[in-house]
Amino acid sequence: MASDPLHIGVALDGAGWHPAAWREPNSRPGELFDPGYWTDLVTTAERGLLDYVTVEDSLSLPGDRFGPPRDVVDQVRARLDAHLVAARVAPVTRHIGLIPVVTATHTEPFHVSKAIATLDYTSRGRAGWQVRVSGTATEAAHFGRRTIAELTAGELAAAVGSGAFPDAARELFDEAADVVEVVRRLWDSWEDDAEIRDVASRRFIDRGKLHYVDFEGRYFSVRGPSITPRPPQGQPVVAALAHAPLIYEFAARGADLVFVTPALADGPAPIVAQVADAAARVGRGGRPLRVHADLVVFLDTAQATGRQRLDRLNELAGAEFTSDAAIFAGSAAELGDLLAGWRAQGVDGFRLRPGVAVDDLAAITTRLVPELQRRNLFRTGYPDGPLRAVLGLPSDVPNRYATS
């Protein structure tokens, strides 16, 4: 096994990250909402010894993250609940981490805490949570409790480029930071030995080891404690996708892992420096924020090169594919070179987004992983322990409320 292996996860989104992915011969479009499809994807990733899968989700239709819903019929226009997908695949996997996207903006932190804690139990310590912020009026209208003055895609791009976000956007991330803080407090609201389960004394719990979190903030207040015991990991892994200093600061305030999107031309070094600066600005102490770089990948297969596959998909879609993350099309050996070079620039790992879920995930596990193993850059077996241990995070997380 590599002494310091690369950390590699995959981001799953329906048939794949390319909008025409569902039209590929192997994509199984009739099964996108069947449990067997998701089980097959995640078990394939586990056979490749990958660290984790993230399961994409949002409160809008795929492809409609910004602006009003579009009237298109040649793309997948539905999605399943990511947390429930992760819960379904948990019992049929043993090692791979399961990190669903759960939106913080319109979801009560008590519900998030309970859901992710339950996933940590059903997966035996392999749960995580990718926090998402909802900033659109369309998504807010699903709930009817508030209005949101949303940015257009152009305004958002300008804000990301300049780092000058309007106050309304900053408030959404401040609120999300409070959600993460409350969720973490609720995970700690039961001490590890709070459950006595003593039939003779008729005591199931020690009430002295359950704690009120008593959070009072600008956006909500939560008393606690949770109704779910402390998760097996103590603190499941919290992750966030970030593209700008404001969001790096949000990740540094409460996350363990941040997904970033370097450009192919620049590499990750400038972003790694920005993340470190953001952590310093918010006064993050203790464990460093782990940085994983995102790449959309179209790998060579036995039938076609990655470039040929991407060109064919673009022709089917009638437009060139673009993404917030860099797009790689080529061989496993070329991708191995890129990953090795980027790791030397300071990233801790990578999250690969399969352009076509079935085809590119298979290529990752059968072509890229063996290529990295030949270079002694990737593990040949899973390490013992929970997801935190797999990612190199501290496994023994102290409970903030424990008195001894």
From TrEMBL:
Highest taxon of source: Bacteria
Classification via InterPro entries: Diverse_substr_monoxygenases, Luciferase-like_dom, Luciferase-like_sf, NTA_MOA
Pfam families from the UniProt entry: Bac_luciferase
Gene3D superfamilies: Luciferase-like domain
GO molecular function, one term: monooxygenase activity
Binding sites annotated in the UniProt record for FMN: D57
Domain Luciferase-like, residue spans: 27-311
Family from the record: Belongs to the NtaA/SnaA/DszA monooxygenase family.
The name this protein goes by in its record: Luciferase-like domain-containing protein
Organism: Nocardia aurantia
